Amino acid sequence: MIDSHAKVSFFAPEASGRRSLAMPIAVALFALLTALGAHVAVPLGITPVPMTLQTLFVLLAGALLGPVAGATSQLLYLGLGVAGVPVFAMGGAGLPWIFGPTGGYLMGFPLAAALVGWISGSEGHALRTAVALVVGSAVIFVMGAGWLSVVNDFGPGALFVAAVQPFLVGAVVKAVICFVVTRQIVARGRRR
Description:
The chain has nine helices and no strands. By secondary structure, the protein is mainly α.
């Protein structure tokens, strides 16, 4: 995450009248990006949870917006889905999605974004950002797997195969992408 001034200047010019709009626009943008990431869904067959791009935008929201705005973007995303807007994977919407197999992953999004923003801090240190991305991904896995075990009554081995293993490589790739993008934005903010 970059410092507060750089975060705002990345999303809007530094004119004081526009600065007050920058963060709400960024929050809405990351809610929209998460929704678009949900529509890039690949059913895997071995699990009731599809592979999506959502978590890339969850991690980026925390790293770029900080803990409060990052979590707010994900709460907005969830609120839209619960209200009936088809923003969940494969066009899903409504409260039943929160109580279905993907509910734990979805409910982990705001917490993951908040933790990524909090751990990475405002200085933009590479090591803190890397740790934050690992923690954020782990939170999504733990909450997703935990809820999936309740919904489907999986044992530990079956739970790992259904809730974690199919998504590990993708999680690493998304974290690396997020790290690279964040580092580039930090470098750009420092050059200003």
